[in-house]
Amino acid sequence: MNENITILGVGNILYSDDGVGVRVVEKLMREYEFSDNVTLVDGGVLGINLLGVISNAGRLIVVDTVLNHGKPGDFHRLDHDQIPNRILAKNSLHQVDLIEALTLCKALDHVPRTTIIGIEPKDLNTLKDELTPEIESKVEGLTQRVLEEAVRLGGSYSPRDKDIDQGEN
């Protein structure tokens, strides 16, 4: 039996690249169908309010920006044991709140095994509801990494029928 997998996109879509996690989850919802053990959640900037979602996950894949002193567009994968060490590098309140929510899960005696699939942002400060071109061009690659992680954890997916959306170009 496969453990349930929650794919959680977080970030603020009003601050350019900060919204990339949410944009990837929106793309996944639009373009793919998943096995029953996979749940997609647009977590936005809910942070600590995601405690219920997080505590119910068997495995948690968080999609977000990651500041790791790389170049904009660099991909990052942080496994469960690496995440607490990253708290000092967090760049926004939703990320600190997410770490706090994971920490509070310990009180509930269930911390899901968590992996962050992220990307080095270019711009987190401009009030703009579009990703920078550098990050937009990497959304497909980030999406593929999330899909690969879901499969690695025991989930499956298939592309949605594109014929349904042809009139929306």
Short description:
By secondary structure, the chain is α/β, with parallel strands linked by helices.
Task: Please tag this protein with its features.
169 residues; alpha/beta; two-stranded antiparallel ribbon
Helix content range of the residues, please?
A: 25-40%
Helices and strands, in order, run as: EHEEHEEHEHHE
Q: Average pLDDT across residues? A: 83
CATH class: Alpha Beta
User: From the structure provided, what is the oligomeric state, counting identical versus distinct chains?
Assistant: single chain
Going by CATH, what is the homologous superfamily?
HybD-like
Spatial gap, N to C terminus: 40 Å
What is Rg?
Answer: 15 Å
Percent of residues in β-strands:
15-25%
What structural class should be given to the helix and strand makeup? alpha/beta
**Shape by Cα distribution:** globular
How are the strands of the biggest sheet laid out side by side?
A: 3-1-4-6-5
Give the strand tally.
7
CATH fold annotation: Rossmann fold
Structure in words:
By secondary structure, this protein is an alpha/beta fold. The chain has one domain (about 5-165): Rossmann fold. Helix content is about 30%, strand content about 20%. The protein contains five helices and seven strands, in the order βαββαββαβααβ. The protein has helices at about 20-30, 50-55, 95-105, 135, 140-150; strands spanning about 5-10, 30-35, 40-45, 60-65, 75-80, 115-120, 155-160. A five-stranded mixed sheet has the order 3-1-4-6-5, covered by helices on one side. A two-stranded antiparallel sheet has the order 2-7. Helix 1 packs across helix 5 (about 140-150). The chain is globular, with a radius of gyration of 15 Å. Mean pLDDT is about 85; it is low at about 85-90.
